[in-house]
Amino acid sequence: MGIEKKKPVSDNDKKEFISFYSDNKDALEADENLKAAYRASVEEGVKKGWIEALSAKAYGCYGGDCVFECDWKEAERCLLKLVELDGENNPFYYNTLGYIYYYGRCSDGVPNYEEAFKYFSVGAIAGVFESRYKIADMMINGKGALKNRKAAASIIIGMYDENYDIFCKGRYDGKFADVSLRMGGLYESGTGVEQDAELAYYHYLQADFAIKKRFETARMYGDEKVRESIEKAVKRVREKLPETFFKKSMTFENPAIFGLMLQGCSGLDIELDYRRGKYYLKGKTLAGEDDVSENLITIAEMEFCSLADEVEMELKGVSDISTDELPSKAFITHIVCNDDDDSWEFYHGDYMLLSFKCKEFIFTGRTWCRGKAGDWK
């Protein structure tokens, strides 16, 4: 059954009607009569100063949709009215106005950086991620703001940490792609950090993965340009790296990937196994309500970036295993390196459940993501 909503009668009905179909535009595309009723209600509401109608028209005209043609001037007019009526409750109006002025959408492409900075500043203070990274962009280039590359880098690095957790908790429609793109830019150019092409590539790979995940969930105005920028950045920096940088597998001296997985969860189910003459260690996260549900595993040398809640590593040079029974399974909360004998100890609280010595931990890209059908990657 399709979405159905009765045509409005009273002003309250019309407001509910506008709000409902503002979030369900697909239903309007298939019904011309319904679309006409929606547009009439929005136009009436704009004249009467309804917040629902002003918002519907502002964002409808912002690039255009199935009801309203692109009209930047009308979008600006509605947004300015929304700031006056409801700006304290919705800082995204300031953010959207910032974009209009930043790209000169009402002035034939000529930016008004002073106005953009003014509106982005309000959005940034109110916690809007887009406003915060646009403020950083402006500070890097000295456009509408004092040029301060270190301060801008600090903003982006802080946002990266916040958005990393949001992304790993399954919010793929967020701003992790945009922030990772900017992190890569910091390292590629040496803006506020030491220039490092490898770290730039690492973050561009994350941006590329994140924008693809966002496209699976929702597409917003400007996302195609974001994707193009990311693809260009990945290609540009890859060409700067020597071919010797790239590997089919990655060898570590420690179980670093399992340590990464433990940082964002309540604990890890581990399994040490011996198959076909080789030792393997597998770890699977147990995530609580406030934990990350998946881990973003990024290995730039392997051009590997993926979400996973289960990872397997091959072990080389294994000895002094504390148990005779394999596979050995345990639930652990932390891993310790015993400096006395260079063994790795796996603990649940104060209790050591497993230990062994190992010369190399090899990652070949074998991961598994909760909720996905299929085989190991």
What do you see in this structure?
With 377 residues, the chain is α+β, with helices and mostly antiparallel strands. Among the domains are: 84 residues, no CATH class; 119 residues, no CATH class. Helix content is 47%, strand content 18%. The protein has 13 helices and twelve strands. The strands form three sheets. Strands 1, 2, 3, 6, 7, 11 and 12 form a seven-stranded antiparallel sheet that branches. Strand 2 and strand 3 form a beta hairpin. The C terminus is likely disordered.
Give a short overview.
With 377 residues, the chain is α+β, with helices and mostly antiparallel strands. Helix content is 47%, strand content 18%.
Which characteristics define this entry?
single chain; 377 residues; alpha+beta; 7-stranded antiparallel beta sheet; 3-stranded antiparallel beta sheet; elongated; disordered C terminus
The percent range for strand residues is 15-25%
The largest β sheet comes out as: 7 strands, antiparallel
User: Mean pLDDT score, rounded?
Assistant: 92
Shape: elongated
The number of helical segments is 13
| Secondary-structure class | alpha+beta
Total count of strands: 12
Percent helix: 40-55%
Note the run of SSEs as H and E: HHHHHHHHHHHHEHEEEEEEEEEEE
Low-confidence stretches: 372-377
State Rg.
26 Å
> In angstroms, what separates the terminal alpha carbons?
37 Å
Assembly state of the chains shown: single chain
